[in-house]
User: Which sequence fits this backbone?
């Protein structure tokens, strides 16, 4: 029961945050079209799942003995790379359909996919392990933040290109590398941490530290995006 309640709270919080972001857009060009990336986000975990299966089949002969490297490899293949790549591709499809014209509306396409992805994840994982569900709750918007990093950086790169300014290449690299690294480290320290099953004190401390840092960064990123929203809305391309 606790797991279902936790998932419902995460669902409500994500919905609230996304609606507030959409309403903050000026001029308001998206409106109901903001549903499009959310729908793509809802179906994206299915494709991520099959991508994980494909990559694991391709790496079936590889063996990693070091527990830290093994946790990182599992997190990278199981979520960090596969999920972020899938969300990136679906967000780009949403961009191609909606054709946003500012950095802010461009970022919303990506955030919307992260929002939809989170909703389906909560449906799939919610109601399972109560402790796991509660532990996930503080990071309710992480997928949205990962996609925010993608959308903002790619939007700025597009803006810089229009302005003839340098530095766009760094934004393009950061758009994918930063979410992948963050997601991989987070899952390696929590979901794929072998020390947690053995109740290792060190593993527990690492998991708590990474979780707390990620949650704090999540709220910092959301706050910064809100503060810079007006500027992003004025960055047209």
Assistant:
């Amino acid at each position: 029961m606790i797991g279902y309640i936790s998932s419902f709270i995460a669902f409500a919080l994500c919905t609230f945050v996304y609606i507030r972001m959409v309403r903050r857009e000026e001029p308001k060009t998206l409106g109901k079209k903001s549903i499009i990336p959310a729908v793509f986000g809802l179906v994206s975990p299915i494709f991520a799942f099959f991508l994980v299966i494909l990559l694991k089949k391709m790496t079936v002969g590889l063996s990693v003995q070091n527990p830290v490297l093994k946790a990182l490899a599992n997190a990278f293949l199981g979520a960090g790379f596969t999920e972020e790549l899938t969300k990136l591709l679906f967000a780009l499809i949403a961009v191609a359909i909606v054709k946003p014209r500012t950095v802010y509306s461009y970022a919303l396409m990506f955030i919307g996919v992260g929002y939809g992805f989170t909703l389906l994840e909560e449906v799939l994982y919610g109601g399972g392990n109560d402790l796991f569900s509660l532990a996930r709750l503080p990071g309710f918007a992480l997928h949205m933040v990962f996609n925010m990093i993608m959308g903002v950086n790619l939007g700025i790169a597009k803006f810089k290109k229009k302005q003839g300014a340098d530095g766009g290449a760094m934004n393009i690299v950061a758009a994918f590398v930063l979410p992948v690294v963050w997601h991989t480290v987070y899952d390696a320290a929590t979901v794929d941490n072998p020390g947690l099953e053995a109740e290792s004190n060190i593993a527990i401390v690492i998991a708590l530290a990474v979780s707390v840092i990620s949650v704090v960064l999540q709220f910092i990123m959301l706050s910064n995006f809100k503060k810079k929203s007006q500027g992003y809305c004025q960055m047209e391309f």
Remarks:
- Residues 67-98 form the longest helix (32 residues).
- The chain has a mean pLDDT of 93.
- The two ends are 48 Å apart (CA to CA).
